[in-house]
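Thanks for the sequence, V.! I ran DUF3450 domain-containing protein right away. Repeating your input here for the record:
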Amino acid sequence: MSKKSLIATSIIGAMALVGSNIASANSLKELHKSEAATVKASAKSQQKINNIYEQSQELLAEYRTVVDETENLKVYNDHVQRLVNDQQKGIDSLVRQIGTIAETKMGVVPLMYKMIASLEQFVAADIPVNLVDRNKRLEQLNDVMSRQGISVAEQFRLVLEAYDIETSYGSMFGAYQGELEFEGQKIIVDFVHMGRTVLVAQSLDLKNAWIWDNSTRSWLALGDEYLNPITKAVRMARKQTAPDLIKLPVYAAGAGE
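Predicted structure:
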């Protein structure tokens, strides 16, 4: 071949190589772009996945919370239901009791009137210890029984309280001041009693003394030998002096002192 032909062939070959290299470079750039786009798309996809995962975890936590609250609510509802059932039993019991209140009143009210009447008879026949207070208490009981606005339970409580007070007189050692009627005269005296065994009285000037005779329902005069013992008994009952042995008269009906 001629030199011109070789040069031309070399130039064509070089141009072909350059063109091939340019084509290869362009392909490489496109490849890099494609890879970058793929990585970017993958990153976006991963971010979406991460977001979805976080959302799913939040939903899972909310679900578990709802399940726990549901279980707690069920336990609480069961507890409330037991309370309601117990209250209903109490209500049913009260309804049954209310149904018998009328019958109870029909039995209790006449009983209270009988108890008050018996108490009046007892006080009238008993030795007159604190007679003014006892008669006043009986009047109050009769007044309570005829007043509105006082429940049967309260009325019954007052009647029982009066019986307790009357019982206490049987063991009481007490002294009080009051009025004694003797031979048509009313005299202010100091009374002293030992239970229901003995009831004596002494004038405030300490010069006269009497003993109650329950068989005749009257006072009997005592001798001067009882003045000092009765004075001491009054002071002992009022806790003005120390307890000590004293000699007091005990009147036995039909047998004298």
